[in-house]
Amino acid sequence: MTGAVSAPRRADLVVVGAGAIGGWAAYFAAADRAGRVVVVERAVAGAGASSRAAGMVRAQAGTAVGTALGRWSIDFYRSQPERIGTDSGFRPLGYLLLVDRARDVAIGRARVVDQQALGLDVRWLDREEASGVVPTLARDGHRGGSYHAADGCIDPARNVHAYSLALQRAGAELLERCEVVGLRTTGPGGSGRVTAVETATATIATPRVLLAAGPAMAEVGRRLGLRIPVGAVRHQVAVTEPHPAFAESPQTMVYDMAQGLYWREEEGGLLFGMSNPAERPGPAAAVDWRYLARMRRRLARRVPVTAGLALRRVWAATIDYTEDHLPILGPGLDRDGAPIEGLTVAAPGGHGMMWGPAVARVAVDLALQGTTALVDTTDLGLDRFDAQQRSRVQVEPIALPFPASVSAPG
User: CB neighbours (10 Å) of residue 187?
Assistant: First the structure.
């Protein structure tokens, strides 16, 4: 069902946001027989970054939490045909995380040992081995990197179609072009427990709300009287014209750790994406052509065959991120820092495609049961941030180079 349908008067769970997190969360909740599950989306499903991502998915991470979320998500993407009768187009291409400094080799090798201890079949490749796995990669200017053959990518647009179909088949209701404007609780100032969600056209009585508003999370939080330290920033993706060098399949994906530049094969050419750590935080959908040109020069040094290739497609989208690059998974907090009963916050921390299904699964577990077996969420809640929005937990080191703060200065 879409926004043309009137909002129901009551629901057992209201999910705010129909991006990758909210969409899969609605499916999981409905499949768990959580009662009447309603998804409220101010635009249309997948209208934001969920349909404009690059679709990179990896279990390689710098923290145990990141590895667990990545592995679970890959397993879910692989199981979709049997589980839901459709899929997100996952392809196991393998992923090489490339480094170019001596100190990063030592750090990377230690990380491989840690990931192997977690059961991940990851290994370190030296410079020659890396060039053997990625034939188009320049043989100099780097020192190899970690490699995991089970990492891969999905098709973002296909992913939106998959969760939209899956959630409705499971019985969830999708209300598009329906914006949330308020939250009702039993106590003053948003404290107590949730009793209803107010939209622009109706009030939906509900004991449970799951906020999955993506890069609009801080804005939605302010509207509801909550402080949620989730940033928004521009992310850019481009695809080159085809070249015979990329015709062989599969092509291993690569992430240039030093520059935050990644690439993979797409339609016979090379798809590459980037974020600018010097960017001013905030919504942005226009292409930054100057920064794109800079990253194209970097790409040409890494993959020389791209130097003379024209671009077929270029786009930008606003994505979310957190200060420590980890997800937010836990209860909403009132102004005094006390949990609001029935309110769950779920933000992927800049890893919507990569960790999306797992973040959604954990969020639903917390919303319905108050606990989850997938990961330890002790340090993933809003209470890890101080008044300056700084986190007290270990930063996830393998992440895009997001701005240092989640809010613009001044």
Answer: 12
> For residue 161, which of 76, 299, 45 has the smallest C-alpha distance?
45
Angle, helices 156-169 vs 20-31, to 10°: value is: 30
Q: What is this structure's pTM? A: 0.96
- Cβ atoms of residues 42 and 217 within 8 Å: no
Residue 209: Cβ within 10 Å count: 28
3-state class of 103 per DSSP?
A: helix
CB 157 within 8 A of CB 305: no
| Per-position pLDDT tens, the chain of length 410 | 444 467 889 999 999 999 999 999 999 999 999 999 999 999 999 999 999 999 999 999 999 999 999 999 999 999 999 999 999 999 999 999 999 999 999 999 999 999 999 999 999 999 999 999 999 999 999 999 999 999 999 999 999 999 999 999 999 999 999 999 999 999 998 899 999 999 999 999 999 999 999 999 999 999 999 999 999 999 999 999 999 999 877 899 999 999 999 999 999 999 999 999 999 999 998 999 999 999 999 999 999 999 999 999 999 999 999 999 999 999 999 989 999 999 999 999 999 999 999 999 999 999 999 999 999 999 999 999 998 889 999 999 999 999 989 987 65
Domain boundaries, the chain: 90-152+232-321
Contact 252, 137 (CB under 8 A): no
184 alpha carbon, distance to own chain's centre:
29
Beta bridge partners of 205: 10, 196
Q: Is 103 exposed, middle or buried (0-12, 13-18, 19+ CB in 10 A)?
A: exposed
The dihedral formed by the CA atoms of 111, 76, 318 and 405, expressed in degrees to the nearest 10: -40
Q: Is the peptide bond before 403 cis (omega within 30 degrees of 0)?
A: no
| Contact predicate 203/197, CB 8 Å | yes
The domain 90-152+232-321 belongs to what CATH superfamily?
D-Amino Acid Oxidase, subunit A, domain 2 (3.30.9.10)
- Distance (Å, whole) CA 275 – CA 256: 12
Residue 38, token pair as written in the block: 């309603």
Q: How far apart are CA 381 and CA 359, in angstroms?
A: 13
Cα separation, 18 vs 40, in Å, equals 7
Which residues pair with residue 182 across a beta bridge?
198
